[in-house]
Amino acid sequence: MCGVFGIFGHPEAANITYLGLHALQHRGQESAGIVTADGEQLLLHRGMGHVIDVFTPDQLAKLAGHASIGHVRYSTAGGSFVKNAQPIAVDYARGSMAFAHNGNLTNAEALRERLEARGSIFQTGTDTEVIVHLVAISTQRAVEDRVADALGYVKGAYSLVCLTDKVLIAVRDPHAIRPLCLGRMLDASHAHVVSSEPGSFDLIGAEFVRDLEPGEMLIIDERGMRAIHPFPHVPRSSCIFEYVYFARPDSHIDGISVYLARKNVGRALAKEHGIAADVVIPVPDSGVAATIGYAEAAGIPFEMGLVRSHYVGRTFIEPQQTIRHFGVKLKLNPVNAVLRGRRVVIVDDSIVRGTTSRKIVKMVRDAGAKEVHLRIASPPTAWPCYYGIDTPTRRELIASSHTTDEINQYITSDSVGYLSLSSLINAVIETQNTHANRASGGGSAARDPLDTGSFCHACWSGEYPVAFSHPPRQRQMRLLDT
């Protein structure tokens, strides 16, 4: 769930990228990095932590250049160490290049073993470095041909930006699993920008142009922009969990408003699992829009019964004397006046292990709720994701080995209701077709409208659109950490 950003042809490329990464911070909080090109060389700065912590005005001033790419990281392949931060920048026989990647490659380990057998030396534990080595050994001449050649060997999910001293390349994998979109600066530069989500364009003063098509590659240089489709056509499998949790609610992904999709999902949830209650509350922030839709459809008042702290840092001091449910209490606190003596419906986006849901239910009961009913705006998460989400192994997913009744018993709620997969998909598709979505100003709809077969839902169904030789594993390379 990383975020990538790129811009070409702007005198303040690094500053624009910095702002773009701010708007993508929700997609990764472990590390951030920016590479700029000044026409002769690449300049890099990256570090652990949030964007605002990694970059100072002095550091940004050193990243002078007309083109830039940036990355915020949420680790899935490779541990949370500074050497695994992106972008990855290297020198090779034909010059310098840098890469930033959102997604996971399902055959990265097999490719890495083959590359190491022929002498490649890896410096990181990320699957992105496999792409770097494949580009370096390609026999193609033009950089875009080298990138296309390298990506022809990989399988899985990648929304990728690549920068050299002369060109910016953006590419979305043929299945379009992860999002990537194109924009244009509204200032005098008219610079092209690419981003994981269009919400970043509002902050930097750019207009949304369109989403990249499945398997599309954009080549942006001083002559302008051109698009090619160098990969064979395969069925589209865009991650539907973007609409449930990942993307910012103010984003449009492939022509669909994320906020309106979540509201529509909440309405569908109320139709499938409505129950008599006095109040509906969300688990903030990802459950808010679905809760609004649920409340509207069910005719039950919406309240913010849980208040979230937005000031939780990367580290904190936990008292030696154990406080019950400390981790959850650090982020959420109940509003007793809303909950006391009431029948409460809690709406959340998903249940993974079930431990957090159990603590939240206990918290709401302790605040005086008479009944607690949990409603989930997605199906049971029973399968791990290998395309860019750091889900646990299948045995750690509570829905893989427990029925809904057993989950309800473990969580100690009065009832649990999951949205069915068919209702979820239909709710997202219906959002695409509503007048409200078309009039929302989020840009043009997807060139090829999404249908019920356009989505990846492997985490719920176990139907994986891209095969993998074996699940990606994390290489714990600590020797070079600083």
Give the helix/strand layout.
Elements lengths: L2 E6 L4 H11 L7 E7 L4 E7 L2 H4 L2 H6 L4 E7 L14 E5 L2 E8 L5 H10 L10 H10 L5 H9 L7 E5 L4 E5 L8 E5 L6 E4 L3 H6 L1 E6 L5 E5 L2 E5 L9 E2 L1 H6 L5 E2 L2 E2 H16 L5 E4 L5 H11 L7 E3 L17 H6 E3 L1 H4 L3 E6 L6 H12 L4 E6 L27 H8 L3 E4 L2 H13 L1 H4 L16 E2 L1 H4 L21
Parallel strand pairs: 14-23, 17-20, 20-21, 21-22
Antiparallel strand pairs: 1-4, 1-10, 2-3, 2-4, 5-6, 6-7, 7-8, 8-12, 9-10, 9-11, 12-13, 15-16, 18-19
What does this protein structure show overall?
The chain has a seven-stranded antiparallel sheet with strand order 3-2-4-1-10-9-11. Strands 5-6-7-8-12-13 form a six-stranded antiparallel sheet, with helices on one face. Helix 4 packs across helix 5 and helix 9 (258-273) packs across helix 10 (288-298). The protein has two domains: 3-237, 4-Layer Sandwich (Glutamine Phosphoribosylpyrophosphate, subunit 1, domain 1); 261-309 and 318-430, Rossmann fold, CATH 3.40.50.2020. The longest helix is centred in the middle third of the chain and has 16 residues, at 258-273. The chain contains 17 helices and 23 strands. Mean pLDDT is 91; it is low at 471-482. With 482 residues, the chain is of the alpha+beta class.
